[in-house]
Amino acid sequence: MRKIAEQIVKKRILILVLATVLLVPSLIGYINTRINYDILSYLPDQLDSIEGQDILDQEFHSASMAIVTVENMEKKQVDRIADKIRAIDGVRDAMWLGDFLQTMPSEMIPEDLRGMLDNGDCQLMMVTFEEGNGSDRTLKAVDEIKSLMNSQMFLGGLAAVINDTKMLIEQELPLYVAVAVGLSLVVLFLGLRYSVAPFIFLLGILYAVLYNFGTNIFLGKVSYITSALAAILQLAVSMDFSIFLLERYDEELHKGLKSQEAMTKAVVNTFTAISASSLTTIAGFLAMCIMDLKLGTDMGVVMAKGVVLGVFSAVVILPALILVFDKPIHKHKHKVLIPKLQGVANFTTTHYKGILIAAAALLIPFAAAQKKTDVYYNLLDSLPQDLTSTAGTQKLRDEFDMPTTNFILVSDQLSSTQMDAVLEAIETTDGINSVATLDRFLGAGIPEDMLPESIRSVFDAGGWKMIMANSSYTSATHEQNAQITELENRVKAIDPTALVTGEGALNRDLVLIADHDIQMVNIVSILAVFLIIAISFKSISVPIVLVAAIEMAITINMGIPYFQGETIPFIASIVIGTIQLGATIDYAILTMTRYQEERRRGKERKAAVQTAVYACSSSILTSGLSFFAATVGVSLVSKIDLIRSLCGMLARGALISMAVILFVLPALLMVFGGVIEKTSFQFLNKKGEKSR
Predict the structure, then answer these.
(1) Residue 674 parent element (H or E)
(2) Burial code of 237-251, b = ≥16 C-beta within 10 A, e = fewer?
(3) How far is CA 304 from CA 230, 281, 299, in A?
(4) What share of the chain is helix, strand, coil (3-state, %, to 5)?
């Protein structure tokens, strides 16, 4: 590693030139990486609901849909609007009651279908698209539909929700970065003695962030959640590496070494020191890749890649930047306002028993509360209530009592008796208020051949019959999920090949998968971090103590929403624990490493703990407060509850982890220090005293 460090120092100008040149393809890659705003598209392909969506798309051309509610408007005007919508690129069709009346007598139209499309005051227009709800073409088409809207028109449906999400993210993303950078700078000014250093740190991290976003092009697309969070988390996590490098560099300078030799040693020491902590962070993020919901792979790969590139920046690009700007960095100094906590170090070692008793007493109610925290799964619930899609969905509820439409697909080989049984099973399911299907047109003995092809193709195609069952329940609620399950059981009892799909079924599957993913991700992330720490410290007990400390912080963090009466987004339950573990375990590793060093120097346990807390406190506070500042800023400015909640919980988690590492971990070391030394290979390296 020393030879590599020497080359980094020697060729620092060339490194900066090449690093800057690489920003060009990175920017091109970033611009050309597609952002996916449809969370439901990350569901596993083998689900019935996804198979049903594929059939709706390929055979019925109605997998992606928006619904326009037209209030108190003449039928001629509605017809003109429908024609304008059909003319939009990406729109397959815009169907309303008038289309049926143009092709068949009024008395042939089933009452359920008539009531579904016209309640007397409002007309309902179902707009289908050529491509999926989240495709760029569909989202552009929704924008054009919005441009046709007036005060008598309301736009709802999943495509409209995704379009509004895209609009908000595009508006807010630059603000996220600006706020995160600004608040991080404030913390760095408080924690560092050099006024120029914070800008150098951010410049170094900027290279890594742009490389990360640029290389996302090889993934094809990333979710909007990943896009919104990745830069913020990379900034927060990578800051540790930058601070450590500068501190090591200053230590070597104070020993009398010249700048190039000092930086060479600093690079070697930094890489050695951050290798274990960065691996735990990477492992924590990669644990999300085991999620059945493919969003986990999306987030895990991008964030883990960001940490790798952050390490690269810290040991290759940042050393070159510091050497180039060495004079201005060391010229402009100010008083450090984030102190080393000598009082905390003394307090924790003196009152460690009381601290552990208080921690245990605190943990019990929060552990119980964590399991009771309510979560939501509906994307619409995360958006402001004054958006187009939320107003349109509310109009559907108020005027047609149909916040959700279920699509049931059955074989077209069913007999008329079986089909009647299917329809009865659907109609008698709780919460179903109207049903539309081809068989309702044929109920009076009308031959199917008499129906126009435009009508038949809506309900019968590709060997399947499609039944639209409107629900009075909102998608992703307990009532709607139970309804979907009941529909599946009833219909499959008659036709085992039947499929239930639509927004309600997709969200129900999201609930089931998320519940499974929560358990699996937590287990895998803990095991991965445990294994890395165990290998690094050659110990069984050290990972138990460190992981237990961070898991306590996570439990408290996840239990707080219950006491606040908050409902959190489902994704928070899956990823917050993993991200908090990966991002803040570094604080615990730093403290344990320093404790081990002090014990090897011969200090008694109490003195070693005090020195470790005192020496590490400033770094932990600076790093943790940087993490807090970057994430809390986003939580304060975002209008999207999903982003606001995730960042708010991450910010709170950073503070809780800091508190646990500064108070609870030292108490654990006081109690279990002897056990750690006996269950670790050469923990004292034969230089320290025996366990005291």
Answers:
(1) helix 665-678
(2) bbbbbbbbbbebbbe
(3) 10, 7, 8
(4) 70, 10, 20
Q: Is residue 619 a contact partner of residue 244, using CB atoms and an 8 Å limit? A: yes
Which residue is listed with tokens 């559907």? 396
Question: Number of helices (H) and strands (E), helices first, in the chain?
Answer: 28, 13
Amino acid at 335: K
- CB of 185 within 8 A of CB of 197? no
As beta bridge partners, residue 95 has 126
- Of 36, 41, 42, 33, nearest in space to 216 by CA: 33
**Lowest pLDDT segment from 139-153, 207-221, 234-248, 316-330:** 234-248
**Is residue 15 helix, strand or coil?**
helix
What b-and-e string marks burial along 563-585, b requiring 16 or more CB atoms within 10 Å of the CB? eeeeebbbbbbbbbbbbbbbbbb
The pLDDT of residue 686? 53
Give how far Cα 463 sits from Cα of 58, 425, 442, 443, Å.
Answer: 12, 21, 18, 20
Q: Which of 620-635 are b and which e, b meaning 16 or more Cβ less than 10 Å from the residue's Cβ?
A: bbbbbbbbbbbbbbbb
Neighbours of 406 (CB within 10 A): 26
Interatomic CA distance for residues 575 and 622, integer angstroms: 24
Evaluate whether 217 touches 335 at the Cβ level (below 8 Å). no
Under 8 Å between Cβ of 680 and 540: yes
Report the distance separating Cα 687 and Cα 600, nearest Å: 5
Structure tokens at 372: 């009771």
d(CA 61, CA 459): 11
User: Which residues does residue 164 pair with via DSSP β-bridges, in sequence order?
Assistant: none
Whole-prediction pTM: 0.87
SS3 of residue 404 by DSSP: strand
Q: Is residue 291 helix, strand or coil?
A: coil
Cα–Cα distance, 38 to 265 (Å, whole number): 48
Please give the backbone phi and psi of residue 618, each rounded to the nearest 5 degrees, phi first: -65, -45
Place of tokens 């646990």: 660
Amino acid at 153: M
**Rounded Cα–Cα distance for residues 588 and 572 (Å):** 23
Q: Which residue has the tokens 């409209």?
A: 160
16 Cβ contact list (under 8 Å, min separation 6): 317, 320, 321, 324
What single-letter amino acid sits at 6?
A: E
Contact between 373 and 568 under an 8 Å Cβ cutoff? The reply is: yes
Token pair of 25, please? Answer: 């393809």
- pLDDT tens digits, residue range 409-445? 999 899 889 998 999 999 999 999 888 887 776 654 5
Please write the tens of the pLDDT for every residue from 54-91.
Answer: 998 888 887 788 999 999 898 899 999 999 999 999 99
DSSP conformational letter for 290: G
* Residue 554 one-letter amino acid: I
